[in-house]
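Subject: design request, 530 residues
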C-alpha cells in the first residue's frame, strides 16, 4: 500500500493532539552518541494488545519510521531507516543506530488498541558527539616559579563538560591562585605558579552523560630557586694551619640545578660546587662565598661568607738564657722564649706546672717573650716552661734552671769521746749546689784528705785533737768550716763506770759513816758503865 497514504490519518491524529499521553515510554529524554546505537524502551508488554503501533520522528515535520500491525504481522518501514533500526516484536522497543547528528529530535510512539483508543508517547533524543582528542595545552612551554602565570587549556572533540584531576584527586581551584573559567571549565589558570602545582600530573577529563575522555597526563616543569644555599667547610675552623688542606662545598635547591661558583674576596675563584685548596698558604686567607645561579629563573643567591685565616703553626720553640752560671743572691737571669717557625700571639711561662706571675723580682718583657728574674735565689731553681700560643697551635719549651749556692749549714757529726782502738767516723756535710769539696785539718795542720767522711780505724790517743772540715763550693768559691773535738782515752787509765771524783766521794762518805758509827758505839758503852 501507498506509504504516504497509510500515514495520513495518524498524522492528523498527532496534529490534533487528541491522543492521551500515557506512559507508553520509560522516559521522555534520552541521549545517544554519534556512531552508537540508542534504544527507545516502551512499557508495552505485548504488541498483540494493539491494532497498530507506529514510531515517528518529529523534527520540523513528522516522519514515520515503522508501523506494525500485530494482527497481520505486517510492518511498514521507512526505507531511509531500514538499515538503521531493529525492533522487538513483543515490546516494540526500537533500536536506532548508528546515530547521526540529524537523528536528534522527538520520537513519537503512536498506538491504537483493540478498543480503537489512540495512545501516544514521546521521547526526545539528544545526539551527542563522541569525546575524542582530549588534550591539555599550556600557554607556556616552561614556567618560572612565582613569576609565571600558566594557563592550561583543555580541548576535545565532541560534546562534554570538563573536569580536572591533580594526580588522582579532583583538582580544586581556590579562585585566587588557581582558577577555572566558568561555566565550561576548560581553562585552568595558575597565577604565580609554584613548583609543586603541575607535578600532578594534571589530567583533563572531557565528559558527557554517556562517555568521557581523558587527556594524556600533563606535567610542566616549573623552574625554581636557587634557594637554601648551604656551604660546608672542612675543616670547620676559621683559623687553619699553613700547609693543611681546605675543602669548601656548596649546594642549593634549584630546578634546573643551579650553577655554583666560588668567590674569593669578591672575585671569582672557581666555577664548581667544590673547591679544594691543598697546602694552604697565608695568601689563601680571606673571605670565601658561594654564588648559586639558575639560568632559567635568572635568580642569584649568595651564601654566607666563610672567613678563613691561614697561620703558620708554631714549632721549634726554645728557651735561651742570658747567663749560663747563676749564683744565688748575686745573679740576674734573662730567659728568652722564641719559636723557630710561626708567630706567637701569646706567651705563658710556668714553673713546674704553676703559671708565673710578675713580681718585683720576676719581670716580663712587654711581649712576654723574655722573663727576667732579678737576684735569683736557690728557690728559683727548677723546670721552667714557656708556652707559645697562636690560633692554630701551642708549642712549648722547657728549661732547667740551676742556681748555684752554698755551702750552707755545714755540719760535722760523729762520736766525740772514744776508747782506745774503737772505730771512729766523722762526717762533714753542707748544703750546696754544686756539691762542695772538703778539706780537713787536725790541730790546724792540713790533712791529706778530701772526702766528706773521715774514718779512723782503731783510734789511737794520737788521733785526739780538733778536727776542722772546710766545705768549698767549686763554682761560687764560697767556703765554710766547722770544728769537732775528738778525745781518745787510753786503756786502763780510768775505772770503768765511775769517775775519779765519784770514787773519792764514796770513799769519804764511807769514812765519815765509819767515824759516826764508831762515835755512837763509844758513847753507848760510856753510858752503860755509869
Ligand atoms: C546498532 O544497530 C545496528 C543496526 O540496527 C546493528 O547492526 C548493530 O549491531 C547495532 N550495534 C550495537 C552495538 O548494538
Ligand atoms: C523482546 O523483549 C522481550 C522482553 O524484554 C524479551 O524477552 C525478548 O527476548 C525480546 N525479543 C527480541 C527478539 O529481542
Ligand atoms: C596539586 O596537588 C599538589 C599536592 O598534591 C599541590 O601542591 C598542587 O598545588 C596542586 N596543583 C594544583 C594546580 O592545584
Ligand atoms: C612529565 O613530562 C615529561 C615530558 O614532558 C616526561 O618525560 C615525564 O615523565 C613526565 N613526568 C610525569 C611524572 O608524568
Ligand atoms: C692534603 O692533600 C694532599 C693531596 O692534595 C694529601 O696528600 C694530604 O695528605 C692532605 N693533607 C691533609 C692534612 O689531609
Ligand atoms: C672579609 O670580610 C670581613 C667582614 O665580613 C671584612 O672586614 C674583611 O675586610 C674581608 N676580608 C677581605 C680580604 O676582603
Ligand atoms: C619575573 O617577573 C618580573 C616582573 O614581574 C620580570 O621583570 C622578570 O624578568 C621575570 N623573570 C623572568 C626570569 O622572567
Ligand atoms: C735551644 O736552646 C739551647 C740553649 O738554650 C740550645 O742548646 C739548643 O740547641 C736550642 N735548640 C734549638 C732547637 O734551637
Ligand atoms: C757577686 O757579684 C759581684 C759583682 O757582680 C762579684 O764581685 C761577687 O764576687 C759576686 N759574688 C759571688 C759569690 O759570686
Ligand atoms: C733579655 O734578653 C732579651 C733578648 O736577648 C732582651 O731583649 C732583653 O732586653 C733582656 N732583658 C733584660 C732585662 O736583660
Ligand atoms: C796523700 O794521700 C794519697 C793517698 O791517699 C797519697 O797518694 C799521697 O801521696 C798523699 N800526699 C801527701 C802529700 O802525703
Ligand atoms: C792536738 O792538740 C791537743 C791539745 O791541744 C793534743 O792533746 C793532741 O795530742 C794534739 N794532736 C795531735 C795529733 O797533734
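Subject: RE: design request

Done. Sequence follows.
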Amino acid at each position: 500500500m501507498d506509504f504516504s497514504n497509510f500515514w495520513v490519518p495518524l498524522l492528523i491524529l498527532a496534529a490534533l493532539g487528541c491522543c492521551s499521553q500515557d506512559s507508553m515510554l520509560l522516559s521522555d529524554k534520552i541521549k545517544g552518541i554519534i556512531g552508537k546505537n540508542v534504544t527507545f524502551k516502551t512499557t508495552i508488554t505485548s504488541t498483540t494488545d494493539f491494532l497498530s503501533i507506529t514510531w515517528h520522528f518529529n523534527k520540523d515535520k513528522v516522519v514515520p519510521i515503522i508501523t506494525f500491525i500485530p494482527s497481520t504481522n505486517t510492518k511498514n518501514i521507512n526505507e531511509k531507516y531500514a538499515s538503521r533500526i531493529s525492533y522487538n516484536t513483543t515490546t516494540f522497543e526500537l533500536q536506532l543506530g548508528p546515530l547521526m547528528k540529524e537523528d536528534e529530535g522527538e520520537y513519537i510512539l503512536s498506538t491504537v488498541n483493540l478498543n480503537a483508543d489512540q495512545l501516544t508517547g514521546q521521547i526526545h533524543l539528544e545526539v551527542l558527539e563522541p569525546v575524542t582528542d582530549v588534550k591539555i595545552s599550556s600557554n607556556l612551554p616552561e614556567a618560572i616559579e612565582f613569576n609565571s602565570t600558566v594557563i592550561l587549556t583543555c580541548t576535545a572533540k565532541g560534546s562534554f563538560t570538563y573536569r580536572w584531576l591533580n594526580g588522582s584527586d579532583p583538582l580544586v581551584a581556590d579562585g585566587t591562585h588557581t582558577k577555572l573559567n566558568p561555566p565550561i571549565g576548560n581553562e585552568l589558570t595558575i597565577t604565580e605558579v609554584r613548583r609543586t602545582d603541575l607535578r600532578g600530573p594534571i589530567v583533563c577529563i572531557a565528559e558527557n552523560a554517556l562517555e568521557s575522555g581523558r587527556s594524556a597526563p600533563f606535567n610542566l616543569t616549573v623552574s625554581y630557586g636557587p634557594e637554601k644555599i648551604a656551604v660546608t667547610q672542612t675543616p670547620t675552623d676559621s683559623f687553619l694551619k699553613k700547609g693543611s688542606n681546605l675543602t669548601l662545598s656548596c649546594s642549593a635547591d634549584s630546578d634546573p640545578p643551579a650553577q655554583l661558583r666560588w668567590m674569593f674576596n669578591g672575585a671569582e675563584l672557581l666555577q664548581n660546587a667544590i673547591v679544594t685548596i691543598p697546602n694552604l698558604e697565608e695568601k689563601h686567607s680571606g673571605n670565601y662565598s658561594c654564588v648559586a645561579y639558575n639560568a632559567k629563573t635568572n635568580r642569584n643567591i649568595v651564601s654566607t661568607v666563610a672567613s678563613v685565616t691561614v697561620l703558620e703553626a708554631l714549632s721549634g720553640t726554645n728557651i735561651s738564657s742570658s747567663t749560663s752560671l747563676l749564683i744565688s743572691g748575686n745573679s740576674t737571669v734573662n730567659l728568652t722564649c722564641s719559636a723557630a717557625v710561626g708567630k706567637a700571639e701569646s706567651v705563658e711561662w710556668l714553673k713546674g706546672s704553676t703559671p708565673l706571675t710578675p713580681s718585683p723580682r720576676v719581670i716580663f718583657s712587654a711581649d712576654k717573650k723574655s722573663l727576667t728574674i732579678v737576684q735569683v735565689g736557690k728557690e728559683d731553681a727548677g723546670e721552667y716552661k714557656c708556652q707559645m700560643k697562636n690560633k692554630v697551635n701551642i708549642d712549648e719549651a722547657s728549661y732547667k734552671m740551676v742556681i748555684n749556692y752554698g755551702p750552707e749549714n755545714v755540719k760535722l757529726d760523729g762520736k766525740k769521746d772514744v776508747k782506745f782502738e774503737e772505730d771512729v767516723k766523722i762526717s762533714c756535710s753542707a748544703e750546696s749546689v754544686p756539691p762542695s769539696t772538703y778539706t780537713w785539718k787536725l790541730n790546724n795542720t792540713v790533712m791529706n784528705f778530701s772526702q766528706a767522711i773521715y774514718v779512723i780505724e782503731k783510734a789511737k790517743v794520737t788521733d785526739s785533737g780538733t778536727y776542722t772540715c772546710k766545705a768549698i763550693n767549686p763554682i761560687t768559691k764560697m767556703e765554710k768550716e766547722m770544728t769537732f773535738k775528738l778525745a781518745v782515752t787510753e786503756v786502763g787509765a780510768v775505772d770503768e763506770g765511775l769517775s775519779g771524783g765519784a770514787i773519792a766521794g764514796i770513799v769519804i762518805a764511807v769514812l765519815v759513816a765509819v767515824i759516826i758509827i764508831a762515835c755512837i758505839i763509844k758513847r753507848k758503852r760510856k753510858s752503860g758503865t755509869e
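The chain has five domains: 4-128, 132-220, 231-311, 318-403, 406-489.
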